[in-house]
Amino acid sequence: MRYLYLFMLLVSPYTWANNEFTQHLHHTAKAMSALYMYELSEGDPQFLTQFEQHISAARRTLNNSSKIERALFLKRWNTFSPHWKFTYIKSMDSLNLDIVVRNNARQYLTDIFLHASSLPSNRIENTKKIHEIVLYSAILSARSLDLISAHEGSSALSEHDRKIKVLSLAKTVHSNINYLLRQATSKKLRRRLLKVKSQFDFISRYITDYDHKTPYFLMYRSVITMSQLLTIDSQKGS
How far is CA 35 from CA 134, 176, 199, 225, in A? Predict the structure, then answer.
């Protein structure tokens, strides 16, 4: 993958701060969203496939992270992630996820987010803002779909899990999109950013308010679309 270069419409190397661990956070959030969409869709296999792809990438990037990060998180990951899956309950004709595993995954996402947030950034400003849009929207989606899938509202969150300040993350995404729009130097880039803005404006209420009905299919798809609009697959050479 490569990020859009905001001023010259060229591609620059797709880089993350503290590359492997931040990618681990991103893939863990994407895996969480996909797994809970699998349950919400009543077992649509496309979401299970996406989950398996992201959890494999999350495992790989954690194993490739620094010695300190492996010491902090690898044992926890290896303890809960093999059990992070739904089982089919024939008598109820429904999918079930152990509540302890769900809570462990929820707390794990909180902890790796807090750790990643403490790491220094060496990216240029525009790349940093694009990175935050992609990463924060994935985390917001994961947290929302977790609570929807569990049929719980915001009261299910522990004080520790509330350390992911979702309103602050959403505000940063809005602010970054508007900043990039002001910096855009071509009509093509501006159109792309306006599409990103439209997608996030639509889902921003639902992605932070866990106590109202959420159009979760549209929310999930919008986050994917935003990421696609902000990144270019280098294999396509576009």
Answer: 19, 28, 22, 18
Residue 122 makes CB contacts below 8 A (sequence gap 6+) with 17
Instruction: Write down the residue that tokens 């509330």 correspond to.
Output: 162
198-227: b or e for each residue (b if 16 or more CB lie within 10 Å)?
A: ebbeebbebbbebeeebebeebbebbbbbb
* Residue 96 resides in a domain: yes
What order do you get walking across the sheet with 231-232 strand by strand? Answer: 11-13, 2-4, 231-232
Range of the domain at 181: 16-231
Residue 212 φ then ψ, to 5°: -130, 160
The answer to the question of residue 95 being in a domain is: yes
In degrees and rounded to multiples of 5, residue 202 shows phi and psi of -65, -45
Q: Is it the case that residue 193 has pLDDT exceeding 50?
A: yes
**pTM of the shown model:** 0.89
Task: Domain count for the chain, please give it.
Answer: 1
Q: What is the pLDDT of residues 143-160, one digit of tens each?
A: 999 999 988 878 889 999
| CA atoms 195, 226, 36, 202: torsion sign | negative
